[in-house]
Amino acid sequence: MSTASIRLFVPSPLAAGAEIALSEAQSHYLANVMRAKPGDELRIFDGASGEWRAAVTGISRKSVVLTARAQTRPQAPEPDAWLCFALLKRAKTDMVVEKATELGVAVIQPIITARTQADHVNLDRLRAIAIEAAEQCERLAVPEIRAPLPLARLMENWPDRPLFIADERRTSALLAPASGPCALMTGPEGGFTEPELEAIGRTPQVTRVSLGARILRAETAAIAGLALLLAAQP
Ligand code: SAM
After folding, report:
1. Ligand 1: residues within 6 Å at CB?
2. Do 55 and 32 share a structural domain?
3. 33: which residues sit within 8 A by CB, 6+ positions away?
């Protein structure tokens, strides 16, 4: 099988001749699933040095070493967008993380609201989903997945960043594509409570927005809202 279409996220800084020891999982994939051989080439990226062509220079069943050969794409800026979404049940949260990564988000901040129906999340699993999505969609960086925060705590220290809160019950203006730093917040299946919306509304950077005439499922709102928000970004 050819390894040329493979892209792997490697945490180490990349430069010509740099040797990269892959993780056990990545080594297993290359050595035992893709049956890579010494000399086979693939692409790697580390989120800061662009994308590089690399060759397999060391291989055993449990460990593979690559050597970076040449840069194929320079590191390029990606949208500075955050998604703050009310934590959903596992499969839906997985889907939101995967699609938000494909859409170019920079930070994924799960939030706990009054009506959130999930309170536990496996961050390592979500980070693995984000890495796989970034590898597949040819991004040059992997979004940061933050630990869930109660909504009130997040808003206590909200940074200088426009926050668009998706509110299905208002006649707010339709969310328009944003440029520069921005954030989208979407609620849980049961929606935000009125006190939550009022409390959030007291933060100067907040704008209530509509995502259209229909009531979207929470996961649809997060994904569709991000697509709208980032429609004009590179
Ligand atoms: N309150 C809704 C109801 O009565 O069915 C349930 C909330 S909706 C399933 C989940 C979240 O998606 C909402 O909190 C909101 O953030 C977002 N959402 C869904 N449809 C929307 C719309 N048309 N405009 C803005 N936000 C929307």
Report:
1. 166-168, 186-187, 189-192, 210-212, 214-218, 221
2. yes
3. none
Which mutation among 93, 167, 215 tests ligand 1's pocket best, with the greatest number of atoms within 8 A of CB?
A: 215
Phi, psi at residue 38, to the nearest 5°?
A: -55, 135
Write down which residue in 49, 73, 97 finishes a domain.
Answer: 73
Q: What domain count does the chain have?
A: 2
Q: Give the nearest ligand 1 atom to 186 CA.
A: 16
What pLDDT digit, counting tens, does each position of 102-160 carry?
999 999 999 999 999 887 899 999 999 999 999 999 999 999 999 999 999 999 999 99
Q: What 3-state DSSP class applies to 36? A: coil
pTM of the model: 0.95
CA dihedral (200, 110, 138, 14) positive or negative: positive
CATH number at residue 53: 2.40.240.20
Tell me, in angstroms, the distance from the centre of ligand 1 to residue 136's CA.
30
- Looking at the fold, whether 171 and 222 belong to one and the same domain comes out as yes
8-35 residue pLDDT tens: 999 878 999 999 999 999 999 999 999 9
